[in-house]
Amino acid sequence: MSQEQELREKLVRMGALLYNRQLAHGSAGNLSVRLDDGSILITPTNSSLGFLEPERISKIRPDGALIAGDPPSKEYFFHLAVYEERPAARAIVHLHSTYSVAVSCLCHEETEDVLPPLTAYHVMRVGKLPLVRYFRPGDRALAKAVREASKDHRAIMLANHGPIVSGATIEEAVYAYEELEETAKLYFIIGDRKTSPLKAEQIAEINRTFSN
């Protein structure tokens, strides 16, 4: 089986997993992977992640031109922006999951990191989560903002929209996204109760031990 066919089928499996775990709904959200030749496989526009078909997944060039499959997600341009800025990234997950989107709708005094480091696993898999200001759906100016925020972060939050998470593999990106959503859920469950997030020295130790 070719790398491309293997990744097409993996996108189908991961889309169904996320849909069945209720992290994706309707036709919202998109997944992508980067092939060795630089081309991108991305879920098609108006497709449900729960019902993808391998042969219909879009294949596009780094400039966005369609090579094969159905027309790509309307948000393909910010996937390209992340790949341009993060050479090691080979996969991207963008969903509209409930708790993460709720965090994106809050007023944040500090936008450099909009979720507290409640667990070591959030620090390891997500890291700091900066907020990118609101852009209307389809606004190509979002690509520039995403590119700038992605420079030093593997996960970013789009205001009133949801997270974009990148990884070295689609599995890594999916697991990081799930960790982000669980941290967002903890954030709301804890609410105004006094918490004990990880301290700076504890975070530094995790980053030294589990550097990637």
CATH architecture: 3-Layer(aba) Sandwich
How many domains comprise the coordinates? 1
With helices defined by DSSP (H or I, 4 residues minimum), what is the helix count?
7
State mean pLDDT (0 to 100 scale).
96
* Helix and strand element order: HEEEEHEHHEHEEHH
Class based on secondary structure composition and strand pairing: alpha+beta
Could you describe the largest sheet, including whether it forms a barrel? 8 strands, mixed
Measure the end-to-end span.
29 Å
Describe this structure in words.
The protein has one domain (3-209): L-fuculose-1-phosphate Aldolase, CATH 3.40.225. It has seven helices and eight strands. The protein has 212 residues and is α+β, with helices and mostly antiparallel strands. The protein starts with a helix and ends with a helix. The chain has an eight-stranded mixed beta sheet, sandwiched between helices. α2 packs parallel to α5 (141-150) and α3 (98-105) packs across α6. The radius of gyration is 17 Å and the shape is globular.
Search tags:
L-fuculose-1-phosphate Aldolase; eight-stranded mixed sheet; 8 strands; 39% helix; globular
Question: Can I get a quick summary?
Answer:
With 212 residues, the protein is α+β, with helices and mostly antiparallel strands. It is 39% helix and 14% strand.
